[in-house]
Each structure stands twice: as C-alpha cells, then as structure tokens.
Write a structure and sequence with these properties.
Radius of gyration: 25 Å
Strand content: 15-25%
Number of domains: 3
Helix content: 25-40%
CATH topology of the largest domain: Dipeptide-binding Protein, domain 3
Number of helices: 18
Number of strands: 23
CATH architecture of the largest domain: Roll
Shape: globular
C-alpha cells in the first residue's frame, strides 16, 4: 500500500509540473475529404475499469459505451437522437399502445455465426429479467404482460413476449408506456448468443457475444478490452475499422500524453488544466466537441442508515452545499445544478422546484433534526463521523473534499473513503453498506423518467445491484412516476415530473449539485465521429485515414525515447509538455 501511495504522490507532483506548460502538441495529420476507408485500429481509454460486459447486468456508462459496439438491439437511435429500427425491420404499434410487433431482419448473424431468430430475442429478454439475473433495472420492463410472476420465479415463461414464426416477435403490455421503445433500445434486452444460456452466469460478462459490429477477443480487467470487426455483420460495409482497443484504468494525464504521441486516437477524460490548454490552443481551435450534458451529479444519502434516516439531516445537507463553489473547480466542464433532470431535457422555469444554498436554513434543519450546531464555538452537530464514498482520481473525489469542508460548517463531519470504480459500484448498490457518497446519473435514454425511476423509485431497491443507492422509498413519488409513464400527453408528463422534483427538494434523498460535460478530442485522421445526442462515445461509425496516421507515426520528433528526439533530423514542433516532463526522469 505504501509503494502505491508513493507512486500516486510522485505522479501527482509531475502532473502539477506538467500543468505549468503553456501549450499542447498540435493535431497529428490533416483532415482530408474522401469516402470512408476500411481498416485500421482505433485506440482510446477509460480512467476506470469495466466490471463486465454482460448486456443484462453491466449498466454503468463505461460498460455501456463498449456494449453499444458488441450488441445490436431491436431499436436504436439515429444520429439525430430519434428512435429507429435496428434488428427490427419496422415497428408496428397497436392503437391502444399496448401491443408492439417487431418483424426481424433476415440474415442477421451473431458473433458465433448463428442466425438471429425470434426465439433468440425472447430467450435474451427472459434471461435478462430472470429471477436469478442481477439486472439493475428490471422494473423498467414491469409493464410486459406476465412480468411480475416471471420475475418472481413463479412461472418459467414471460407470457407477454410471443413468437410469431421465426422472424417476428410481439410484446404485449398491461398498460401504455411512454418509455417502452426507449427501454427496448437499452443493451439489457439486446439479443445475445446462445452461449449466454437461458439463465444468467457470471462467466458471460468476460466472454460477451452478440450481433453488434464488433466482437471481443481479449478482456483483461484493469488492462485492456480488444474488439475486432464482426465480418458477418448485417449492415454491409460496416464497420469500417478492423478493431478498437480500449485501455482501462488509465489516468487522465497519461491519456493526454499518449494522445499527443499518437498512441491514443480519441480521448475525453482530461484534467481541468489539460482541457484548458486544448481549449485555448490555436492549433486545436475548431476541433473536438462538447458532449451534450445528460448527467446529474451530487451526493446520495442512504435513507436506511443514520443519520440520513432523518429527513431534516438530509435537507440540511442540501441547503449547505454551495454549488457555485463546486462548479468553479472545473469551469467549462462542471455547471452548478440543483434538480434531478438535466436542463437539456426539462429547462427550468421561474419558480421551478430546485434545491438551494442557504446556510441559515441548513443550520435550522440540523436543529430540527436534534443536532444543533454552533458555528461560533464549533460545538454540537452530529456526534459521529460519516463515511463518504468517492471514486479514486475523479472529479467525484474533488467534490467530496469540497462537501467535507462545506458540511463541517453545519456540524457534519465526513470521513472520505476513496475506492476504485468496481468497488464503488459494489458498495453503493448493497443494502445498508454505504452511508453517503458520490451520486451521478447519465441518462439511459432522453426522457425525464430515467432520472427518477431507476435511482429513486421503491421498485428499484434491491439487496444487491441496487441503482437506488439512497434506498429511498416514497409512495407519493412512486405514484407520480407510474402516472407519468402511463401518460402520452407531454404537457401532463412535464407537470408530473415537476411534482416529482418538488418531492426531491422536500425529502432530499440526493443533494443535486452539478452537471458534467466532457470535451471530446480526436486526431484529424479520425473521421465519422461526433458526440451523439443520446449514446455516449458512440464510435461504431468511425474510420481512420490510415495514410495520415502513418505519416504521423513516421514523425520521429514524437518518439518516446530521448535518443529519438535528439537524432530526429528536422523536429517540426516546439517541445510538448511530455517532452518537458521527461527532463525529470
């Protein structure tokens, strides 16, 4: 443990030194017009690990980005964010909104060469919703006829999913559901190969098999996931790339320097200092793009554990957080935000219910909770330390330190526990395990319901793999959400979600604090990519100008060794921050 800490401290010191640089390396190669090229391997990275790639269970944003390459679903989103058929040829919906018919494309092949049939679709849906499958959001699908008895293990067949021959599937609902096509676009119910089995098994998470454009050939936890082209993919001419290599657990400053050297082709996990350098660099002006902010961040409070079983303590937290101070740490990337639904989906209006920063109200809530605190003497407050769970080397860790300072002013003393991503997910999803911690939710689909149902509804509570980390149960909220899902009137739905926001303000299972946007960068030789309005890191249509990339690779001034740089006949660029940093080796 000591050696790991020493290494982290050393790298942190170097990062501060590197951050003093006034520039970044210019883009590699040129963006040339022309038709898509076939071939080449695109390389990118995550600062987190990926726990698994089983479509039925892996539901975090990192896994979802890769799953969108491995699996195809019955429906998906086009480049404008509109729902369109994918493995289905079309979608036929009954007038009452309770019956959906999906005729399937013919000749679709799984990665193992087997042809997709309607039986595979039903098997995959039943596997995802089986009582033994730790699906994180089974309640999304509760309106399928027969869901309750099937998910409880009382029946062996999900009655509402019916086969109409080999190439057509029909799904019947108990009542209309405004989000149904959205949830059918999630990887959870995407068709998986027969090797997945009829019942969930843990081993499939590292050996995924679907009908998407890429298949997994190598999966090493904390190291790398390698994807190669699925030669039998149904969409002719796709994918363009031979493969994608996704490096795992790579710190953001390492990603940046590998990007400068051409070892990574696309990145988005930049530190604030590095992001600012790219944003102010003349060479990078007009390149890259901001991902649409479909994220709400803050802190959850476990309502089943003291002191957060007391509503007044939760309200005190929500009043004590200065959201503008949080945003000032990462300007551009972080914006102050005080409601559940991002503004992209529901823009706030005058009087719209939101949490607010009000120090005096926070102190009053602590008094009402029975933990009065005197800021002049520092006496009083909650008598025990509160364990706060944060993610290593992330903005969540930075935010935790700010929360710690702000909440100490009202008599709540946080003890920050920093863990890796897999450990964080395991602890926060297990009942009566995590008192408090980072809360962040990226839209599963572009609808307000996804910011309430999976993370705050009673039905989303599970003993393990619970997305409702606050373990918050509130019947009036549940009733509102059910009514909103049932309604097809947009004005009514908007009104119902406004009422849901009011409940969050009053009950404070979360203290919503900010939204987060990523600045995405890719080298000029990467084509066919731009941030998608719904799908995160949607790389399936990307292609490489291989000639431009080869020219860049031949540029010896970007060499990794000191000898390369000294013997390079005509260095073309000023020293990069990485070159300066090497002087400290």
């Amino acid at each position: 443990m000591r050696s790991i800490r020493t290494k982290i401290e050393l790298l942190g010191g170097l990062a501060l030194t590197w951050g003093c640089s006034t520039g970044v390396a210019p883009p590699i190669g040129e963006a040339r017009e022309g038709p898509p090229q076939q071939g080449g391997v695109l390389r990118t990275a995550f600062f987190t690990d990926v726990r698994g790639l089983d479509a039925a269970t892996a539901f975090d944003t990192a896994a979802s980005a890769i799953e969108s390459l491995v699996y195809d679903g019955l429906v998906t989103y086009d480049d404008e964010g509109k729902l369109v058929p994918q493995l289905a040829e079309r979608i036929d919906i009954s007038p009452d909104g309770k019956r959906y018919v999906f005729p399937l494309r013919r000749g679709v092949l799984f990665h193992d060469g087997a042809e997709l049939t309607a039986a595979d679709v039903k098997r995959s849906i039943q596997r995802a919703l089986h009582v033994k499958t730790p699906c994180p959001v089974p309640s999304y699908y509760e309106r399928i006829v027969g869901f309750a008895t099937y998910h409880d293990g009382k029946t062996e067949d999900l009655a509402g999913v019916k086969l109409d021959g080999d190439y057509q599937i029909t799904i019947e609902l108990t009542e209309p559901d405004a989000t149904f096509l959205h949830i059918m676009a999630l990887p959870i119910v995407a068709p998986v190969c027969a090797s997945a089995g009829k019942v969930w098994e843990r081993s499939f998470a590292s050996k995924p098999c679907g009908a998407g454009p890429f298949k997994v050939t190598r999966y090493e936890n904390g190291q790398i996931i390698k994807l190669v082209r699925h030669d039998g993919y149904w969409e002719k001419g796709k994918p363009h790339l031979d493969g994608i290599e996704w490096f795992l657990s790579m710190q953001s400053f390492t990603q940046r320097f590998k990007f400068e050297q051409g070892d990574l082709d696309y990145i988005r996990e930049l530190s604030e200092a590095d992001s600012l350098l790219y944003r102010t660099s003349p060479a990078w002006r007009g390149r890259g793009a901001w991902e649409p902010s479909l994220t709400t961040g803050g802190t959850f409070m476990n309502t089943e554990m003291a002191p957060f079983d007391n509503r007044h303590v939760r309200r005190a937290v929500s009043y004590a957080i200065d959201r503008e101070q949080l945003a000032s740490v990462r300007p551009g990337h972080v914006s102050a935000h005080a409601k559940m639904v991002p503004n992209v989906l529901i823009a706030p209006e005058p009087g719209y219910p939101q949490q607010t920063f009000d120090y005096e109200r926070a102190l009053e809530e602590m008094r009402l909770a029975g933990y009065a605190y005197d800021p002049k003497t520092g006496q009083g407050g909650y008598p025990k330390e509160i364990a706060y769970l944060a993610i290593l080397d992330s903005y969540a860790q930075t935010a935790a330190e700010i929360y710690q300072q702000q909440l100490a002013k009202i008599g709540l003393r946080l003890k920050i526990q920093v863990v890796g991503w897999p450990t964080f997910l395991a602890k926060t999803s297990r009942r009566k395990t995590a008192q408090m911690g980072f809360a962040g939710w990226h839209a599963d689909f572009p609808d307000a319901s996804t910011f309430f149902e999976p993370i705050l509804a009673t039905k989303s509570i599970q003993d393990e793999e619970s997305q409702n980390a606050a373990f918050f149960s509130h019947k009036p909220l549940d009733d509102l959400l059910d009514r909103a899902r049932r309604s097809t009137d947009e004005a009514e739905r908007k009104s119902l979600y406004r009422q849901a926001e009011e409940i969050v303000v009053q009950e404070a299972p979360w203290a919503t604090s900010y939204t987060y946007s990523y600045l995405e960068l890719w080298q000029p030789y990467v084509h066919g990519y731009k941030p998608h309005p719904v799908l995160s890191q949607h790389l399936r249509n990307a292609w490489l100008d291989r000639a431009q990339k080869k020219l860049a690779a031949a540029d010896c001034s970007r060499g990794h060794r000191l000898l390369d740089r000294l013997t390079c006949p005509r260095p073309r660029r000023a020293p990069t921050t990485l070159a300066l940093a090497r002087g400290f080796r």
